[in-house]
Amino acid sequence: MQQNHVISIPKVAGYDTQRNSSTQTEISDEVITNNGFFPDVQLVNIRNAMRIDGTVTDERLKHSVISAMATVNKDLKNYREQAQSNNKNTLAECNDEQINGLSLDVYNYLRAVYCLAVANLYERYRSYDSTKEGHDKSAELENTADDLKRDYHFAVRDILGGNRMISELV
């Protein structure tokens, strides 16, 4: 018969268990406003969805999110112009399919922005942590960054109604 072993660690008076010991910044709920057609992005939402802890400062995250939004907006510029010419004022109006009350196009837009923003952060991880462990970790994150970029491309293609696979005869 298997016995369960329980380890009990008493709480230390005044110790805040909700705060990660590596957290260096307060988490901001700042909103990055978009162009009116595409949705705004809340920093706290990307932190929660992509599991970004407080070791990434709000300024670094904000810079990465703005860069990602600009790239995705550029990728979807023709789509936006076509939609606006058809009297669609927001991305949410372009697709009536919803999950959990959110337009699939809005979901895919946010997924594209989140994935690209985090991929950019991962690619620059070495400049944040130049220790040997930081270099080892950045090598591990390189594959993850590639996966995130793939997901970003998939999300944009899902909005455009395109295929997720591109093949070329070499």
TrEMBL record:
<keyword id="KW-0175">Coiled coil</keyword>
<feature type="region of interest" description="Disordered">
    <location>
        <begin position="1"/>
        <end position="25"/>
    </location>
</feature>
<feature type="coiled-coil region">
    <location>
        <begin position="69"/>
        <end position="100"/>
    </location>
</feature>
<protein>
    <submittedName>
        <fullName>Phage head completion protein (GPL)</fullName>
    </submittedName>
</protein>
<dbReference type="InterPro" id="IPR009225">
    <property type="entry name" value="Phage_head_completion_GpL"/>
</dbReference>
<dbReference type="Pfam" id="PF05926">
    <property type="entry name" value="Phage_GPL"/>
</dbReference>
